[in-house]
Structure formats: C-alpha cells, structure tokens
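re: the backbone from monday

yeah here it is again, tokenized this time
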C-alpha cells in the first residue's frame, strides 16, 4: 500500500484563516484516493511552479535586506567614520543599534503577518526599509546615523520571520531544508556582491555631484531595494488558500499536502487553540527549547564578524579597494558550503554532526586569526570564520521544527523564542571587533572560539536527548496505547500523540529514517 493510500482513513485538514491552525475538512477532490504515481507527478508539477514563482524572489529580497543592513561595513572603508567624526566604539554602536530595533519589532510584526496578505505586506515593508536605508546617505553626525540605523532595524524586522513562515506554508518539512539552503544564500551573496559594488562605487564615484562615495553607496543600494519591492508586488504569491495564480485544484492540493505533512488533526490539537499564553507555557516549560535558544545565540554571535568583515580583511595590509575585492571569494566559498552542508543534512536526515563540523570550522578560523601573523594563513582563517557560522544557522533553522512537529502553536512559539533571544547576541557582539583591537582581535576571536565549543556541546547534548526520546516513543508505539486521557501530563500526551504518528526526531541516520516515515504513518 502506498504512503498516500495509507492516509485515506486519516483526517484531512484545512487552514483556519483566523488562527492559521488546522482542522478537519472534507476531501472534495478525492486526493486521498489518488494513486502514488498520480501524487508523485502532480506534486512534481506543482513544486516546479512554486519554486519558480517564489523561491528566487524571496531569496533576492533577503539578499538586498542583508545588503542594506551590512553595507555600513563597506562604507567604513570609504571614510564614513572620518566624515561623521566617529570615534571610539561609536561605529560599533551604530552597528549594534540596528538589532535593538530589529528585536523590538519581531513580535508585533509576526502577529500582524498572520492577518495580512504577504504579497502586499512584505513588499511594503521592503519599500519602507529601502527608503530608510537610503537616508543613511543624509547622516551628518553620529546621532543622525544612530537614529536611521535604529529605524532600519525596525523596518527590516518583519521580512525574515515572515518569509520563513511563508515558505513553511508552501513546502513540507522534507522539502524545506533544500529551499532554506537557497533562501539563506542571501547573506553570503549579499556580502559578495556588496564588496564588489562597494569597490566600484568607492573607486569611481567619490565627489560625484558633490557627494562622498560612501553616500552614493547607500543611495544606489537603496534604489536596488525599492525596485525589487515594486517587482515583488506583481510576482510574490500569498498563502496557498488565498493565492490567485494557481487553479482551484492546485490550491486545494497545495493545502492538502501541507496539512498531511503537519498532521495537526491530532487529538491534542485543542492544546494548540487555547490561546497564546497556553502555547507560550508549552514552549517555555520544555527544557529542549532553551538548549536550542543557547545554540542559536552562540551561532548568531559567531556571525557578528560579518558586519566588520571588510575591516578584519583590511588588517592584511591591502588598500581599501583591494580589501573589498578580497572579500568576494570568501563569500562565494561560504555560499557553496551552505549548499553542500544543507544537501548533506537533508540527504542523511542528520543535524548534530553537521552543526558541529560547521562550528569547528569557525573555531579554527578564529584561532588562526588571533594566533597567526603571516598574511596567507590569516586570510585562510578568515575564510573559515565566515564559512562555518552560516551553515550552522540554517541547520538550527530546520532542526527546531523537526524536533517540535506538534502542537503547531508550540512549534511556532519555540521558533519565535529561538530567533528572538538568539538575535540578542548581535547587540553586544558588535563590540567584539573594535578598531583598537586590530589586527589580531584577540578578545573577539577567543570569545567566538569559546561560544563555538559551547554550541557544539549543546548540539551533542541535544542529540543524546533526542535519541533517548526516540527510544521512549518506540516503547509507547510497541505498547500500542495512544489514548490521551486528561489525567496524563502534557508531556505524556504529546509523546503518545507523536508515537501514534510514527514520528521520530532526527537524531541519527543510523537509527531512524526520514521524515517521510512520519508522513506515512500520520
């Protein structure tokens, strides 16, 4: 019997627009009765449409988002610091303040996103942050730059969580890993293109129309952002149930396959609909949440070098234009490694060892930065610093939903906690690379190497926890008692519900199979 035929007796679900949860519905298109061959062909056809319509645009929007938040690092090499009279750690503060605004807007934007059309909301916030980013060119002093950077973080906050949530409404969990690899290629490509664009602008546009080259850099990249936003108004789709570029059958099938993947039509679904306080309690009382929070915090802290990378490379002794050009191959290598790591993690359904390998690369790079004075090995260390942190971030991004599949509300709350608290590291991480610490940046490099070790320890601990939890799920499944009595604890109810579906966490490919096994038995 095929995996689709096995689901005929299970509940179909549909998305409730008011809560974005799932509930039982009829199957007017009789998708449950279709053959496996029909599903394979129809699914392939639909995925091609979704990929072509949405994935390149979302990735490019993320690219310009990252370009606008990180171009301050390139502008620094164009005498921004001298022109604005910045001294001490004021440049670090201007970098850090963006993330204060970013964090303050996270929760309101997430709540608003569930009530508006993404095809309107995301391009609109993009226009807003593009205009604000361009206003950096008008800054005349530290106070002006600080105000604009704070507003930029505030305006950029809705995009990343909104885009990630939008992807999760179109793709199954088995499909998300590869799509996240392409989506999160944005930062690496932004740093690569940002360095090349900055090299050209700083070399040829200084004094053009009476403006410094670094001011032109902000203006040009802001115009790029606004142009992409206008294009997105016409191309970006809405959610599967509200989009208008698919036929009625395709819309129904897009909803059906995501509902089957999530399997939220469980007896424990009521727990997802008891309100925000209830799902927040489920999230904060699960100790695994805080291990993921710590891992994400460490990984994002290791990425703060991104916002100072041109200055770090500048310590090799090259000129400003040569320095910007030298950053490009680093980010090309990072982009390629991102794709390789996520392909391997998806292929093997393993997260722990991939994350540890990525962080080991970051640790090695930081140790090389602070301990070696030779130009060649130091540059290699800078490659490793950049290449390790980004794949680790994407691994956590996919590991969390695969560890907490249901209730849906709990999964959403944990994802929000991991991202919000994790991003606080960017606020103080901006002070790890002051200009006074050049060229070795001993404190920053040693700190990142240390948190890398902490992150690896958390990942290994989580792996053992999930292996143990999988064994408990095996035991419940063997016993065959899946009743969810009210007298049971929340954890036991959750465990019985997961065991009923056949779900197992992605702890190790040697012991447990793919997420498809969960789908087959859900």
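seq for it, each position gets an aa:
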């Amino acid at each position: 019997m095929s995996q689709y035929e096995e689901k005929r007796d299970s509940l179909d679900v549909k998305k409730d627009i008011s809560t974005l949860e799932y509930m039982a519905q009829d199957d007017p298109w009789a998708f449950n009765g279709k053959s496996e061959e029909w599903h394979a062909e129809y699914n392939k056809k639909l995925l091609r449409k979704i990929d072509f319509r949405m994935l390149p645009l979302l990735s490019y929007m993320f690219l310009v988002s990252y370009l606008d938040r990180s171009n301050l690092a390139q502008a620094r090499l164009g005498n921004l610091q001298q022109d604005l009279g910045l001294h001490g750690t004021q440049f670090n503060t201007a970098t850090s303040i963006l993330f204060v605004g970013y964090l303050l807007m996270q929760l309101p934007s997430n709540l608003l996103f569930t009530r508006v059309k993404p095809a309107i909301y995301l391009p609109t916030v993009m226009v807003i942050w593009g205009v604000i980013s361009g206003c950096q060119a008008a800054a005349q002093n530290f106070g002006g730059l600080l105000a604009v950077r704070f507003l930029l973080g505030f305006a950029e906050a809705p995009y990343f969580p909104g885009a990630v949530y939008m992807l999760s409404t179109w793709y199954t969990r088995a499909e998300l890993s590869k799509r996240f690899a392409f989506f999160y290629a944005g930062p690496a490509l932004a740093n690569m293109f940002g360095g090349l664009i900055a090299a050209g602008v700083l070399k040829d546009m200084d004094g053009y129309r009476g403006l410094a080259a670094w001011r032109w850099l902000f203006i040009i990249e802001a115009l790029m952002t606004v142009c992409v936003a206008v294009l997105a108004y016409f191309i970006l789709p809405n959610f599967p149930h509200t989009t208008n570029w698919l036929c009625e059958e395709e819309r129904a099938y897009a909803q059906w396959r995501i509902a089957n993947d999530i399997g939220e039509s469980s007896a424990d679904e009521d727990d997802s609909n008891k309100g925000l306080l209830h799902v927040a309690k489920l999230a904060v009382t699960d100790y695994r949440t805080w291990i993921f929070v710590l891992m994400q915090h460490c990984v994002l802290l290791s990425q703060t070098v991104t916002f100072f990378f041109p200055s770090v490379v500048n310590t090799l002794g090259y000129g400003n234009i040569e320095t910007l050009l030298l950053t490009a191959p680093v980010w090309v290598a990072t982009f390629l490694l991102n794709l390789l790591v996520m392909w391997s993690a998806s292929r093997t359904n393993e997260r722990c060892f991939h994350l540890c390998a990525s962080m080991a690369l970051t640790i090695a790079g930081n140790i090389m930065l602070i301990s070696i004075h030779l130009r060649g090995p130091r540059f290699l260390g800078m490659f490793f610093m950049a290449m390790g942190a980004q794949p680790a971030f994407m691994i956590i991004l996919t590991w969390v939903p695969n560890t907490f599949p249901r209730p849906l509300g709990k999964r959403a709350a944990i994802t929000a906690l991991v991202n919000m608290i994790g991003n606080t590291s960017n606020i103080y991480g901006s002070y790890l690379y002051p200009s006074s610490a050049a060229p070795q940046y001993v404190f920053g490099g040693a700190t990142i190497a240390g948190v890398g070790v902490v992150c690896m320890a958390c990942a290994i601990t989580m792996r053992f926890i999930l292996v143990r939890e999988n064994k408990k799920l095996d035991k419940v499944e063997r016993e065959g008692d899946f009743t969810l009595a009210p007298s049971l604890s929340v954890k036991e109810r959750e465990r019985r519900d997961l065991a009923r579906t056949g779900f197992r966490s992605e702890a190790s490919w040697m012991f447990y199979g793919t997420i498809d096994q969960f789908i087959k038995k859900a």
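The chain is about 70% helix and 0% strand. The radius of gyration is 24 Å.
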